Amino acid sequence: TFPSFLQNSLEQCSVCAKPIMERILRATGKAYHPHCFTCVICNRTLDGIPFTVDAGGNIHCIEDFHRKFAPRCSVCKEPIMPAQGQEETVRIVALDRDFHVHCYRCE
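RESULT FIELD:
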């Protein structure tokens, strides 16, 4: 272990508050242990994986962010998310309601 005077000078992880003695992962303006940088919903480690941050500063994997914040289809009530491997969401908006393309039926 490190002497206490050295531990006090080490950067601390913004999740567990323990000193970071090896590799520092920097994201969102903070320092993390790589194993502490995780999605708030599924707890998957996001080291080297695309992620996003919500308005409250919570870190999400892309999939969970879309599941939580995507508009819901007015027919099936499921989230309207990008197709696998895509970044863009395709949906129909009619009468202030959201629909999957395959759920929408003209009335």
